[in-house]
Design goal:
The complex is a heterodimer of chains A (115) and B (117).
Chain A lengths: L2 E3 L4 E5 L4 E3 L2 E3 L5 E8 L6 E7 L6 E3 L2 E6 L4 E6 L8 E9 L7 E2 L3 E6 L1
Parallel strand pairs in A: 2-12
Antiparallel strand pairs in A: 1-4, 3-9, 5-6, 5-10, 7-8, 8-9, 10-11, 10-12
Chain B lengths: L3 E4 L2 E4 L5 E7 L6 E6 L5 E7 L6 E2 L10 E5 L2 E6 L8 E9 L7 E4 L3 E5 L1
Parallel strand pairs in B: 2-11
Antiparallel strand pairs in B: 1-3, 3-8, 4-5, 4-9, 5-6, 7-8, 9-10, 9-11
The chains are: A mainly beta (115), B mainly beta (117).
């Protein structure tokens, strides 16, 4: 069965610190997609990244970077030089190819960046 | 990316009433989904809204409680029927956008915050 685990419930850092949000997933499929979303206090879900199971290259986008390791079934997200505006709940999600794009979400990690 | 608009953005509803949430997309999409996020919780899929046919519901969700319409490829509605305080949640519409991106990216609307009193 598919499952996404975000073990960190809440993380608090001081502005400009680097922070890594962990995501571990379980799936029996060989073809799947992994996502990260940001949910600020306003409630909308902001798409950050999609990664397919055949692409293990790490990705960097500005202060954001993602580390995908199939060997450990992890898809971790790092924010470099965090800012107060990064404060939000971050969700990792899994979609299996045979599941018609349904998303299985982790429980989320609340990130608080203090000035 | 697809632009998704939801109405209402927020509402306070009386127990026992029903409310319909609208989801409008600025482009034609095949897959539309409705998710629920209860306070402090993660997101759970309610159903997949299929154009021209009945919605496909996930375990624990039934059509009588959450009727869904999908009259065309850009619009869907979710009704929350006979509401109770336990239905207080954010309801989010999402779409699979395989055109604008390189495929299989799921985008979300801004959500509809319902509080049942």
């Amino acid at each position: 069965a598919q499952k996404v685990t975000q073990a960190q419930t809440e993380i608090s850092v001081v502005e400009k610190e680097d922070v890594t949000l962990d995501c571990v997933y379980e799936t029996r499929d060989t073809t799947y997609y992994l996502f990260w979303y940001k949910q600020p206090p306003s409630g909308e879900l902001v798409f950050l990244i999609r990664r397919n199971s055949f692409d293990e290259q790490n990705e960097i986008s500005g202060r954001y970077s993602w580390n995908f390791q199939k060997s450990t079934s992890s898809f971790n997200f790092t924010i470099t030089a965090s800012q107060v505006v990064d404060s939000a709940v971050y969700f990792c999600a899994l979609s299996e190819m045979d599941s018609s794009y349904k998303l299985i979400f982790g429980s989320g990690t609340r990130l608080l960046v203090r000035p | 990316s697809a632009v998704i608009s939801q109405k209402p953005s927020r509402d306070i509803c009386q127990r026992g009433t029903s409310l319909t949430i609208q989801c409008q997309v600025d482009s034609q999409v095949t897959m539309m989904f409705w998710y629920r996020q209860q306070p402090g919780q993660s997101l759970t899929l309610i159903a997949t809204a299929n154009q021209g046919s009945e919605a496909t519901y996930e375990s624990g969700f039934v059509i009588d409680k959450f009727p869904i319409s999908r009259p065309n490829l850009t619009f869907s509605t979710l009704t929350v029927s006979n509401m109770s305080p336990e239905d207080s949640s954010i309801y989010l519409c999402s779409v699979e956008d395989s055109v604008a991106s390189s495929g299989n990216t799921i985008y979300f609307g801004e959500g509809s915050w319902l509080t049942v009193v």
